[in-house]
C-alpha cells in the first residue's frame, strides 16, 4: 500500500481503504473499485467509484490525436471519486481525473500518483519555427480536479501540452512534472527554441565587394542591406594544386556582446564550403558557485553540394545552408579557430585588399536568416504579440497550473520544460527550499495565514540556455584574372550576433501573503502585478555556492502599473539584502505611517524617484532614484559603504545623520537637515556630486544646510558643486561665523573639500551664497580645502586693489567662506592670493590643519609636526621671523611646540617668584594661561605680571592682559628665535601654566 509521511504523521490514502472494503453494485450503477495490474487498453467507460492502476499495471488508451486541448482529454471513467496510479498510464491526448456525472464535471475526492503518467509524448517538436508558418506539435494534457491530490511520481506531457491540477490540498513532495523536450533545468537537458525568418534569392542589383567588404565594416548586397559597422574579417584560401583555381572563403563577424566570445572554423579542403561559428556562453551557477559553459553553434554550407540548394529551406524560416544547435560540452571541430585577417590577394591589380578593385557583382545567389533564441517553445518574440495571439500568458500552450484552495506542498519537487507555470495557494504554502522548478513565465499566488512565509529556491532565476539573436547573410561569386588566368571562387558570410548565455525567468503576477513576515530569496521579474501583504519583508542575500539558485532575493517590477506603497499596504519593516527595482516613484512608508525600520545593504532602483519615511533608515548598498528625486525623512539615518544616485534632488531630513564611505550624485540640489548630529566620522571616503542636471538658463538650488546641527562635521567629505553653463546656483548654509579661527571647524558642519566648478562665464553662470542669519548676523561655511575649477578658478578673477574678485562667486552680506587651503587646476595653491577676496567673503584660516589642508614637517632630531600646507609653502610669509620666507626656510619655517623650550625656575628676587621662560619669534604674540587645579577643565588667562623680558629689554604690562607682542623695540625683525620670560609671585595656591605663541603672518601686517 503506498503511503507518505508528512508533518510527523502517517497519512494513508483514504480512497484505497474505501475501495477495498466496498462491494460491487448492480450493473448500470457506480461500482466500487476497478483494479488493474496488467496492460489495459480499452477505451470504454469505467463506472467505478475507485480506480487503481497498481504496480505493474499499464493503462494505455489512445483514442486518436486531436488538437491537444481539454476537449480531447480522455476520460475513461464516470462517477469516479478516487484515483490511484502506482504503475504506468499513457495516452496520446491525455487524461482527465475528476468526477463526471452525465457529462457534467465536478470535483472528485482524491488523486494519488506514485507512478508515471505520459500524455502526448509521441508527437514532440524540438524546435518551434515561424516564418514559413507556425508549427506546433506534440500536444498532451493532464487535468486533475480533486479535494486531495498527492503526486510523488512523474507526469510528462508533450510539447505545447497542458497540466491543470486543482484541489483543496495539493502535495507534490518528491513529485515531477515535465514537458517533454522543453526547457529543462541544468543537469537534466538543455534545449532552445528558434524563431527564424529567412530569405533566399538572386541579387538583381549592383554590388561592389571591394567597397562593401572592408577590414572593419561589411555590407551585404541588396535587397537585404545587412550592415556591420564593427566587424572582424576571417579569410581562408584553398587551391586545387594547379595554381590556377582558388576558393576564397571569408567570414565578417560582428559580436555585439563581448561577454559571449566566439570562434570561426573553416572546413578543410578545396571546394569545401562548410563553416562553423562557435559561441561560448559562461554563466555563474549560483547554487554551486561554479562557472558553467554552454556552446551554441551556427553552421553554414556555402554550396551544400550544389549552389542551388541555398535557395531551398530545411525548415520554416531557415534556408537550407544554415543550421543551429547547442551543446553542454564543446564540439571537437578538428581544426583550430581561424585568426582574424584581411589579406591582399591582388597586388598586381592595384588592390589594397582581397578583391579586385571596381568589380561589379550582379545575379549572385544569396541567403539570409534572422534567428532569435528564446526560453520557451511558443513565440515570445514580442510579449504584446503573444498576448494578442493567445489572449494572455495564462493561455499559452505548454503550461502547468497548480491551484490549491487550502494547502500546496512543493517540497523536493521537480517541474520543468513548461512555457508557463501557475502556482496558487493563498492559505498554506509549504516548500523546503530544495525544489527544482524552472519556468520562463509564471504566475505566483501564495500565502500563509498562520505563520511566516519563505520564498526560497522556489523558481529558478534563469533558464541556462542561449537567448538573443543571430543574423547571417551569405553569397557566392566568381572572378577570373585576365592577366594571370587565375580563377577565383569567392564565398562570403556576414554574421551579427547579440547573445546571452542564460534567459531570465519572468513572472506575470506575484501575490504573496503572510500574517507576519515574508522572506524572499528568489529573483522575481514581474511584468504585470505585484502584491506583498505582510508587515515584515526581508530580501535575502544568498551569494554563490550556498545552494541557492539566485544570488540574492530580488523584486524587479517591470511595469508602470505597480506602485510600491499600494503593493505593500501593511509593511512596517523592510530589510533589503538583495534587490528592489521599480519603474515608478516608490514611497517607502508615509509621513502618517512611517516604516519602523528600512535597512538596505543591496540595490534599490526606482525609475521615477524614491521617498523614504522611516524611524530608522540605513543604506549600505546602492540606491538609485532614476529620473526623480531621493527624499529621506527619519529620526536616524545611517549611510555606510553605499551610494545614492538621483537625476533630481537628494534630500535627507533627520535628527541624526551618520554617513561615511558613501557616494552621492544629485542631478540638482543636495539638501541636508540634521538637527542633532551630522558626522562622517572624519573618514575621507564620502564623495558627493550635485548639479549634473542643472544646465540651462535660470536658477537652481545647490548645496543646502538650512539648520546647523547641534554637533558634528564633515571633515572627511568631498562635495563637488557643479555649475553648468547658463545656470545660477543658489547655495544656503547655516554654519556659525566664528571668524578666521580654528574654532569654526569644530561642531559647525565643516566640510572637508568643496569643489566649485563653474563651466560657463559670468553673468550667465555662477554661484550665489547666502546664510540663514538675519538682523546683521552672519553665517559661514568652513572648508578645509576649497577647490576652484574652470570659471570659478583664480585665473578668471578681476583685480581690485590688493584683493581679488572671482566673478562667478557672489555673496549675500550674511555669509563668509573660510578655508584652510585653496587650490586651482594642477594643485596650485591660491590660499594666500584670494584671502579677503570678493568683498572679504573669502577668508583664509592659516592656523587650521585639517585632513586635506595639512602636511607633516620633520624637525631635528626627528620630531614630526603637522602644519598648514599653504602656510608652509608660502613664498611671502616668514612665520618664524628669521628673514626667510616659509618655502625657503626648510626644514623649520615654524616655531613648533617642541621648540618652545618651556621652563619654570625658582628665584630669590623679592618677593620670591617663579621665572616662566619660553622661546618666541620676532613679531610673535605670546599668550599665558594658568590653572590652580589640573583637574579643572578650563585654562584661565594669567594677567598677574607687571613686566615681560627679553634679555636686558623689558616691556610693561600696563593693560594687565594675558598676552604681549614681540615688537621691534623688544626684538627686531628679522631675528632668530629668542627666549622671553615673565615673573609670578609665589603664593600658597599652586599654579600650572600654559604658553601659546601665535606667529605673525605677513610683515608688517598682522592678520
Task: Give a verbal description of the structure.
This protein is mostly beta strands and 1007 residues long. The chain has four domains: 4-181 and 402-454, no CATH class; 194-375 and 467-500, no CATH class; 664-855, no CATH class; 897-998, Sandwich (Immunoglobulin-like). 3% of the residues lie in helices and 47% in strands. The protein has six helices and 79 strands. The chain has a 38-stranded parallel sheet that branches. Strands 4-6-8-13-15-17-31-34 form an eight-stranded parallel sheet, with no helix packed on it. Strands 18-29-38-39-22-21 form a six-stranded mixed sheet, with no helix packed on it. It is flat, with a radius of gyration of 42 Å. Residues 1-28, 65-71, 122-138, 182-190, 379-391 and 1003-1007 have low confidence and may be disordered.
Task: Lay out the secondary structure.
Elements: E1 4-6, E2 9-11, H1 14-21, E3 31-36, E4 39-40, E5 48-53, E6 58-60, E7 82-85, E8 88-91, E9 94-97, E10 99-101, E11 104-106, E12 108-113, E13 116-119, E14 141-151, E15 154-157, E16 162-171, E17 176-179, E18 193-202, H2 209-212, E19 218-219, E20 227-228, E21 232-239, E22 245-255, E23 262-266, E24 274-285, E25 290-301, E26 313-315, E27 318-319, E28 322-327, E29 365-374, H3 383-390, E30 399-409, E31 414-416, E32 420-425, E33 428-430, E34 436-437, E35 441-448, E36 453-455, E37 462-463, E38 467-481, E39 486-500, E40 503-504, E41 506-514, E42 517-520, E43 523-533, E44 536-539, E45 554-557, H4 564-567, E46 573-576, E47 579-582, E48 586-588, E49 595-600, E50 603-606, E51 610-619, E52 622-624, E53 630-633, E54 636-646, E55 650-666, E56 670-679, E57 686-690, E58 698-704, E59 714-723, E60 727-733, E61 751-758, E62 766-771, E63 779-790, E64 798-800, E65 803-805, E66 809-811, E67 815-823, H5 837-840, E68 842-844, E69 854-859, E70 863-868, H6 869-872, E71 903-907, E72 913-920, E73 925-931, E74 940-941, ...
Parallel strand pairs: 3-5, 4-6, 5-7, 6-8, 7-12, 8-13, 9-14, 12-14, 13-15, 14-16, 15-17, 16-30, 17-31, 22-39, 30-32, 30-33, 31-34, 32-35, 35-41, 36-42, 41-43, 42-44, 43-45, 44-46, 45-47, 46-49, 47-50, 48-51, 49-51, 50-52, 51-53, 51-54, 52-54, 53-55, 54-55, 55-56, 55-57, 56-58, 57-59, 58-60, ...
Antiparallel strand pairs: 1-2, 10-11, 18-29, 19-20, 21-22, 23-24, 24-25, 25-28, 26-27, 29-38, 37-40, 38-39, 64-65, 69-70, 71-72, 72-78, 73-74, 73-77, 73-79, 75-76
Amino acid at each position: 500500500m503506498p503511503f507518505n509521511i508528512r508533518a510527523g504523521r502517517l497519512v494513508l490514502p483514504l480512497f484505497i481503504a474505501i475501495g477495498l472494503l466496498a462491494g460491487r453494485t448492480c450493473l448500470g450503477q457506480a461500482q466500487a473499485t476497478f483494479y488493474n495490474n496488467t496492460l489495459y487498453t480499452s477505451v470504454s467507460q469505467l463506472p467505478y467509484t475507485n480506480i487503481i492502476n497498481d504496480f505493474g499495471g499499464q493503462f494505455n488508451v489512445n483514442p486518436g490525436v486531436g488538437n491537444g486541448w481539454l476537449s480531447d482529454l480522455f476520460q475513461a471513467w464516470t462517477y469516479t471519486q478516487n484515483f490511484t496510479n502506482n504503475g504506468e498510464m499513457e495516452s496520446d491526448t491525455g487524461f482527465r481525473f475528476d468526477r463526471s456525472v452525465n457529462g457534467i464535471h465536478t470535483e472528485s475526492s482524491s488523486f494519488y500518483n506514485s507512478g508515471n503518467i505520459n500524455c502526448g509524448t509521441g508527437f514532440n517538436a524540438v524546435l518551434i519555427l515561424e516564418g514559413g508558418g507556425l508549427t506546433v506539435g506534440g500536444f498532451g494534457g493532464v487535468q486533475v480536479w480533486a479535494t486531495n491530490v498527492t503526486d510523488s511520481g512523474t507526469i510528462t506531457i508533450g510539447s505545447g501540452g497542458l497540466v491543470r491540477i486543482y484541489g483543496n490540498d495539493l502535495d507534490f513532495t518528491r513529485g515531477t512534472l515535465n514537458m517533454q523536450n522543453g526547457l529543462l533545468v541544468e543537469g537534466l537537458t538543455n534545449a532552445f527554441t528558434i524563431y527564424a525568418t529567412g530569405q533566399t534569392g538572386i541579387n538583381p542589383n549592383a554590388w561592389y565587394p571591394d567597397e562593401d567588404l572592408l577590414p572593419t565594416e561589411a555590407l551585404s548586397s541588396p535587397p537585404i542591406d545587412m550592415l556591420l559597422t564593427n566587424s572582424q574579417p576571417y579569410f581562408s584560401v584553398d587551391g586545387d594544386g594547379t595554381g590556377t583555381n582558388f576558393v576564397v572563403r571569408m567570414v565578417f563577424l560582428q559580436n555585439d556582446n563581448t561577454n559571449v566570445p566566439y570562434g570561426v572554423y573553416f572546413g578543410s579542403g578545396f571546394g569545401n564550403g562548410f563553416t562553423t561559428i562557435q559561441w561560448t556562453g559562461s554563466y555563474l551557477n549560483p547554487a554551486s558557485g561554479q562557472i558553467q559553459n554552454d556552446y551554441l553553434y551556427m553552421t553554414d554550407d556555402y554550396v551544400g553540394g550544389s549552389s542551388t540548394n541555398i535557395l531551398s529551406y530545411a525548415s520554416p524560416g531557415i534556408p537550407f545552408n544554415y543550421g543551429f544547435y547547442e551543446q553542454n560540452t564543446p564540439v571537437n571541430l578538428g581544426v583550430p579557430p581561424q585568426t582574424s585577417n584581411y589579406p591582399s590577394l591582388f597586388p598586381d591589380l592595384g588592390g589594397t585588399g582581397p578583391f579586385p578593385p571596381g568589380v561589379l557583382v550582379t545575379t549572385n545567389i544569396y541567403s539570409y536568416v534572422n534567428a532569435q533564441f528564446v526560453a520557451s517553445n511558443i513565440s515570445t518574440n514580442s510579449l504584446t504579440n503573444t498576448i494578442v495571439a493567445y489572449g494572455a500568458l495564462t493561455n499559452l500552450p505548454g503550461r502547468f497550473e497548480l491551484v490549491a484552495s487550502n494547502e500546496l506542498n512543493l517540497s523536493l519537487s521537480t517541474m520543468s520544460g513548461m512555457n508557463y507555470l501557475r502556482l496558487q495557494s493563498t492559505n498554506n504554502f509549504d516548500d523546503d527550499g530544495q525544489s527544482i522548478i524552472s519556468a520562463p513565465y509564471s504566475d505566483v499566488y501564495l500565502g500563509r495565514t498562520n505563520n511566516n512565509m519563505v520564498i526560497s529556491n522556489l523558481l529558478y532565476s534563469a533558464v541556462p540556455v542561449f537567448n538573443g539573436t543571430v543574423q547571417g547573410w551569405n553569397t557566392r561569386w566568381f572572378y577570373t584574372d585576365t592577366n594571370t588566368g587565375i580563377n577565383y571562387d569567392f564565398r562570403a558570410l556576414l554574421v551579427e550576433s547579440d547573445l546571452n548565455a542564460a534567459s531570465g525567468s519572468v513572472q506575470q503576477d506575484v501575490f504573496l501573503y503572510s500574517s507576519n513576515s515574508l522572506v524572499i530569496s528568489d529573483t522575481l521579474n514581474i511584468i504585470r502585478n505585484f502584491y506583498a501583504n505582510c508587515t515584515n519583508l526581508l530580501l535575502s542575500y544568498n551569494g554563490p555556492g550556498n545552494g541557492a539558485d539566485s544570488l540574492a532575493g530580488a523584486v524587479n517590477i517591470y511595469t508602470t502599473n505597480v506602485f510600491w506603497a499600494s503593493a505593500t499596504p501593511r509593511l512596517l519593516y523592510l530589510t533589503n539584502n538583495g534587490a528592489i527595482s521599480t519603474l515608478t516613484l516608490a514611497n517607502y512608508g508615509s509621513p502618517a505611517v512611517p516604516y519602523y525600520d528600512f535597512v538596505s545593504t543591496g540595490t534599490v532602483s526606482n525609475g521615477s524617484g524614491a521617498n523614504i519615511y522611516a524611524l530608522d533608515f540605513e543604506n549600505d548598498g546602492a540606491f538609485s532614484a532614476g529620473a526623480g528625486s531621493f527624499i529621506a525623512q527619519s529620526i536616524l539615518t545611517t549611510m555606510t559603504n553605499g551610494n545614492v544616485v538621483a537625476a533630481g534632488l537628494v534630500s535627507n531630513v533627520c535628527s541624526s545623520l551618520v554617513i561615511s564611505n558613501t557616494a552621492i550624485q544629485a542631478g540638482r540640489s543636495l539638501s541636508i537637515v540634521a538637527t542633532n548630529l551630522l558626522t562622517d566620522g572624519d573618514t575621507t571616503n564620502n564623495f558627493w556630486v550635485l548639479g549634473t542636471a542643472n544646465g540651462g538658463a535660470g536658477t537652481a538650488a545647490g548645496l543646502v544646510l538650512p539648520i546647523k546641527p547641534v554637533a558634528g562635521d564633515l571633515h572627511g567629505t568631498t562635495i563637488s558643486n557643479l555649475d553648468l553653463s547658463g545656470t545660477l546656483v543658489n547655495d544656503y548654509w547655516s554654519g556659525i561665523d566664528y571668524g578666521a579661527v580654528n574654532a569654526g571647524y569644530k561642531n559647525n558642519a565643516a566640510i572637508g573639500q568643496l569643489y566649485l566648478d563653474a563651466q560657463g562665464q559670468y553673468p550667465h553662470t555662477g554661484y550665489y551664497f547666502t546664510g540663514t542669519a538675519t538682523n546683521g548676523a552672519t553665517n559661514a561655511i568652513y572648508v578645509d580645502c576649497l577647490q576652484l575649477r574652470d570659471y570659478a578658478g583664480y585665473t578668471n578673477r578681476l583685480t581690485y586693489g590688493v584683493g581679488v574678485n572671482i566673478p562667478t562667486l557672489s555673496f549675500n552680506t550674511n555669509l563668509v567662506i573660510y578655508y584652510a587651503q585653496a587650490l586651482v587646476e594642477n594643485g596650485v595653491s591660491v590660499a594666500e592670493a584670494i584671502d579677503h577676496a570678493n568683498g572679504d567673503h573669502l577668508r583664509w584660516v592659516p592656523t587650521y590643519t585639517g585632513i586635506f589642508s595639512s602636511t607633516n614637517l620633520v624637525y631635528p632630531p626627528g620630531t614630526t609636526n603637522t602644519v598648514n600646507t599653504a602656510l608652509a609653502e608660502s613664498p611671502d610669509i616668514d612665520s618664524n621671523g628669521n628673514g626667510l620666507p616659509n618655502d625657503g626656510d626648510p626644514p623649520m619655517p615654524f616655531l613648533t611646540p617642541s621648540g618652545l623650550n618651556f621652563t619654570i625656575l625658582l628665584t630669590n628676587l623679592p618677593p620670591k617668584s617663579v621665572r616662566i621662560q619660553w622661546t618666541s619669534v620676532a613679531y610673535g604674540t605670546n599668550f599665558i594661561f594658568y590653572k590652580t587645579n589640573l583637574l579643572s577643565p578650563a585654562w584661565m588667562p594669567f594677567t598677574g605680571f607687571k613686566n615681560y623680558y627679553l634679555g636686558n629689554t623689558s616691556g610693561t604690562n600696563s593693560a594687565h592682559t594675558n598676552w604681549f607682542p614681540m615688537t621691534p623695540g623688544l626684538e627686531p625683525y628679522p631675528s632668530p628665535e629668542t627666549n622671553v620670560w615673565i615673573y609670578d609671585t609665589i603664593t600658597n595656591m599652586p599654579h600650572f601654566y600654559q604658553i601659546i605663541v601665535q606667529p605673525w603672518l605677513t610683515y608688517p601686517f598682522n592678520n
